[in-house]
Amino acid sequence: MTSVWWVRRDARLADNPALVSAQEDGPAAAAAVWTPAIHLWSGRRRAHLARVWWSLREDTGGALGVRRGPADDAVLAVAREHDAPVVWAAQEFSPAGVREQEAVAAALRADGRELRFIGSPYAVAPGRVRKGDGTEFKVFTPFLRAWREHGWRSPAPDADPDGFVRVESDVDLDQRAAHGDADDPLAERAEFREARIHDQLADFLAGDIDRYASERDRPDLDATSHLSVPLAYGQIHPRTVLAASSRLRSDAARKFESEVAWREFHADVLHHHPRAQRESLTPVIPEDAWATGSEADEAFMAWRDGRTGFPLVDAGMRELAATGTMHNRVRMVVASFLVKDLHLPWQRGAAYFRKALLDYDHAQNQLNWQWVAGTGRDAAPYFRIFNPESQAKKFDPDRRYVERWVPELDTPAYPEPMVDHKAEREVSLADFQRGKELR
Questions:
Q1: 169 marked among binding-site residues
Q2: Matching PANTHER family, A to Z (predicted)?
Q3: CATH second-level architecture of 122-152+194-272?
Q4: Does the annotation flag 396 for ligand binding?
Q5: Residue 134: what are its φ and ψ, rounded to 5°?
Q6: pLDDT, tens digit, 9 for 90 and up, residues 230-275
Q7: Could you tell me which of 419, 346, 348, 432 has the C-alpha nearest to residue 384?
Q8: CATH assignment of 287-438?
Q9: Is 359 annotated as a binding residue?
Q10: Which residue of 2, 52, 236, 388 could cross-link 310, Cys pair, CB 3.0 to 4.6 Å?
Q11: Which residues belong to CATH 1.25.40.80 in the chain?
C-alpha cells in the first residue's frame, strides 16, 4: 500500500516520524506544495525554498513531487494518483498552518481518505508544557524548567532513501532556485544538502559552542550555530539538535539549549493566543501615539533600506536585504529602533521580516517583535530602549560588522542620523506613561 508524505516544514529524511510512518506499508509518495502564499515572499526566500526542495528531491532519488496550488487540492490530487488511503504529515500549530491542515483533512475525508499527524516542528509540541494547575506558562524561565522536565523523544530512525515512488511535479525547482545573484553565498547547492547541515551541527558542537555563551551577541564574530535557516525549513529537527548538544553536558550546551527553548516558548504562546500574530498581547502604547501618513512611510522605507544614519541599524537592514538573514542581537536593535525611535507599530516590521527572512518562523517572528515592543509574554519592559550607538560600541567594538555592510560609513555619502535618539526615547517613555495611566 502506498501512503503520501505531505512535506511541510520537515524537508528531511532523518528523524522524521511522518515520513517513517508513510513508509511502514511500502514506498511513500512524497509531495510538497508551492502554495499561493509563497508568492508573497521575497525572491530570495522563494529561491531558498526551491533549493531546499531541490536538495530533498535529490535525497529521495528524484521521487519528490512539487505541486502548484492550494494544499487541499494538491495533496488530494497526489493521493488519488497513487490510490493512497492515508496521508501522513507533521502537525502545525500556527493559525495559518492549522487552517491549511484542516482544509486538507476535509478534502481527503470527503474523498474517503485520511490525514494522520505524527510529530511537529518542535521538540515538545505547543500546549504540552503546562503548570501544575493545567494553565499555560506566561514567563519563560519557569517554562524552560518545565520544558526540560517534560523532555522529548529520542530522534526517530532514518527513513529509507530508496523507499519512494515517483510523484510528478508541475513546478520547475531549477528555475525557481535561480535568484540571479552568482555571488550569493547561499547559491551553492551543496550547502543545502541534509548531510551538510548535520556536519554543520557537529562542527558547531565540536568548536564554536564553547564561545556561544560569551560571544553569541557579537555580530562581528562567528559564534552562533547558523542553524536557524535549516530549522525553519525542517532540514534538521530541534530534537536532533538537542540530542546532540545534551551529550556535551556543559554549561555552554545548556545555554544553547535554552535559546532553542525560546523558539518552543513562542510557539506555545501563539498556540494559546492566536491573536498574538496580529495584536499586542499587552498593549502599552495609546493607538494615537503611532506615526502615520507619508512621513511615517518615508521613515519606514529609510529603515527598510538601511538609510537611517545609525550604522548598526543600517548594517543589519542591509545584511537582511543582501542575505535574507540578520544576527539576532542586531535584530533586537533594528526592531527597537523602528518601534521606539520611529514610533511605528511592531506589526509593520514583523510583516517586512516575514517577507525577507530566510529563517522566518511565524511564532518566533511575531513574538520576538512583541518582546522588543514590550507587548508580548515575558517581554522586555517597554521602557527598555536600545541605544543603537552604545549597542554598536559594546557588540561591534572594532566596527568590523558595520564596515562590512556600510562601506561608505566615513564618507560624505553616509546620511546624518534621521532622528535624535535621546529625544525620541523621551517621546516613547512619555507615550508609555500615558498608556499606563489609561489602562
A1: no
A2: CRYPTOCHROME, CRYPTOCHROME CIRCADIAN CLOCK 5 ISOFORM X1
A3: Alpha Horseshoe (1.25)
A4: no
A5: 90, 0
A6: 999 999 999 999 999 999 989 999 999 999 999 999 999 999 999 9
A7: 432
A8: 1.10.579.10
A9: yes
A10: 388
A11: 122-152+194-272
